[in-house]
Amino acid sequence: MSQIFPISSQIIIANTFLSRLKGLLGRSEMPKNTAFILTPCRQVHTFFMRFPVGVIFLDKQGVVLYKQILNPWRVSRLVKDAVMVVEVDPSTLDKINAGDVLYTEKK
User: Fold this and answer.
1) How far apart, in Å, are the Cα atoms of 95 and each of 17, 25, 35, 39?
2) Pairing state of beta strands 10-14 and 34-38?
């Protein structure tokens, strides 16, 4: 059964070439309660990173297409129908499944 979840309490959006290129580089860990959204995006890598990240691939409606934990120096699979990738602390993936819907809360 699919569920609907808010993405995170703190969101960082990377929607330009340079912001997507920089990504999480230079950080020593994945910030807790933070989601890093790369858009447009269908594939990510963890080259030069020092920590694993949870990656969630979403379609344009926010439906989870695929999720995985990426260790440093790895490349994710290419998810053809994805329009964005959400990078989170790996423990976040425990409660999210393919078919769930993620959304951002407007305050």
Assistant:
1) 30, 26, 15, 23
2) parallel
The string of pLDDT tens digits covering residues 82-96 is 999 999 999 999 989
**Torsion angle of C-alpha atoms 17, 19, 21, 25, degrees rounded to 10:** 180
The predicted pLDDT at position 107 comes to 44
Structure tokens at 75: 């490349």
Q: What pTM does this model have?
A: 0.87
Lookup: tokens for 83: 């329009």
Is residue 85 within 8 A of residue 45, CB to CB? The reply is no
The Cα 42–Cα 101 span in angstroms is 17
Q: What is the DSSP letter of 27?
A: -
Distance CA 52, CA 98 (A): 20
